[in-house]
């Protein structure tokens, strides 16, 4: 039996692509299609999630290349980070050797999967050639005023012995994202990138990113967390005017106390003369934020004047007021805020209602007892003098004027602390001198390379005495290097720019080329990066554009796809612990890369999850063998002798009753064109499973054509050629085999995509199958909807117009859309 041996076929074509430099892109290409997958962390082992991610971009890149596009499809290694240190400890090696070995292994696996990358552009973040630019960019950020050294209460993982960004702390239990250990808090000085300076633009530009999934944009919006409010000044004792930030200016008449954060300058001033306050401030600064109750706070003996009522209200210092949020000061309204309510009850402070439910609210004003619990909804003002009766919204607007306040927008987004007390990262290019303070490492001394790794409990950089002690670049005195390294999210915030000019020695990337080639046209990766990586990368892009390293590129990624998860056979997440992981290596060995790729791409559209299925794998494998056999038989001249039914008669393929041989050939020819048009459209839309369905249908038609009659050789061959080309992006090795049998001219990877001009009436025809009026009724009855318009709308809104038109006119057709998956489910549910 005619069958291909993937173990022989696949490496042969991989070598051929390499030989022909198929995936190389010239530096002088203008505006290539930039197709990018999130680069992998170098764990050493490829898992199915990687395979799916990289198959998607590879198939798309190959599709675009065949369509004649210049395609930039690079790959690199996110290779700094804690796991390498842990692995090095476990294996008594060092992070560098471990990482390099992982990279070699993963690169081999990528080649075996048939992924076509321009390896000349490989980027490895743990190499000084790369990370020197992290250091240089850090200095550019600093020059632009975007680097600050701040003392901050930080998330500390006691197990990893490192500071974590807020984004690296997971869940209400506050667990380390890497090791699931509950985190502590510590107060430490750290280097921050002031991403908050870009909060507004990062938020607003999300509206324009319509190539992104809505859920990701929403997650970023929530993370940035815009709060519209106002600031108003209160006179505090003899300390002058203190600005507060509030989102509830409507409640100002109900302010019964005033509260300062322990870090607020006025709190610190009061502490100078007041031992009790001093003690509290010191305690609050040392305590873990979460250990303190909402009720924790101390009366200062001072009073503030409420500008709305003229009343003197007591001033507290309270830990629940955060120093770096808003102005670090607030007026408290126990009647309408939960925390203020709890605090007031504990400290025996007045609770004064100033808002009650409006007439159209669910709550009855008589049921609201603010002594019991805060009423936190908007409503109508009461006990607010001449302003009684205003709605909360009206009051908020009016009071800004009345109390001489200012509209103010706050964000939940915090500055990005990038200091990590770990070895395997980019050294922060700063030197600390007793006399000069922090001094930058001069450009000519970059990169600051990592010293040799030593096994130690703390940070190996602290132990590297020789490396650590240097002369101050300013005054020459003895000084000490910064021993913190950068968060690895710095590495991934601009790697997509480095691919543009990976070997450039005097700049991180070529400004002109990067400005031409960016943004990335298609970016594919996991939803877990919805906030951190994607927000940081957007931030970096805006900053490098603002410091003129780019020329007008404000966003790095125009189209984003988050691939769904690959589940184990039982529908659970694949994992080692559940023992349901399927190793890509094993699948490659057993069935070949193309089978794995085809199965993954047929199983579901990229965004959807799917469960691994041996039957699915088998089906993909058989299909590849079938098309190989059909093509091989044709190439050997066997195909045209298949039928006895050669002349005249009527052939039936079950759906369509053919007329003459000529009519059949015409029909097949039309189907070939229609398939090319349909598959092209589906590829463009990232609906690879639909495109592959079209290819399967074409191949099945060709087989039936051969069985039914003596096929027209030219038409039959065109059908096979078309199928081979349409399949090649997903199953590239088999694609080459088919191509070789059919044309043997060059590589299918470099061949021209089939003409995707649809036959004249294709737009209508492809959506229709011949059917009877009774079948229409049947479906309508099953679904339980009388009006065909409703059905087609529910199923395929974008097809509405012509489908409905035809359904109306023709007595004997059913829109094919009615037979699609969604409708079937719909029918089953009914
Ligand atoms: C008065 C007020 C009355 C407030 C009321 C709320 C309800 P939310 O609402 O959680 O999104 N705030 C201001 N600065 C703060 C700080 N540094 N630390 C902690 N809390 C602070 O956040 C906005 C509210 O948080 C602000 O509005 C302020 O309390 C409090 F019935 O002002 B409000
Ligand atoms: Zn100095």
UniProtKB/TrEMBL annotation:
Keywords (alphabetical) are: Aminoacyl-tRNA synthetase, ATP-binding, Cytoplasm, Ligase, Nucleotide-binding, Protein biosynthesis
Q: Where is the Leucyl-tRNA synthetase editing domain?
A: 221-401
Q: Where is the Methionyl/Leucyl tRNA synthetase domain?
A: 34-178
One of the Pfam families matching this protein, by short name: Anticodon_1
Q: Which GO terms describe its cellular component?
A: cytoplasm
The record's catalysed reaction(s) read: tRNA(Leu) + L-leucine + ATP = L-leucyl-tRNA(Leu) + AMP + diphosphate
Q: Which residues form the Aminoacyl-tRNA synthetase class Ia domain?
A: 412-610
Q: What class of enzyme is it?
A: ligase
Which EC number(s) are documented for this chain?
6.1.1.4
Tell me its family. Answer: Belongs to the class-I aminoacyl-tRNA synthetase family.
Q: State the name under which the record lists this protein.
A: Leucine--tRNA ligase
Can you name the source organism?
Answer: Haloarcula salinisoli
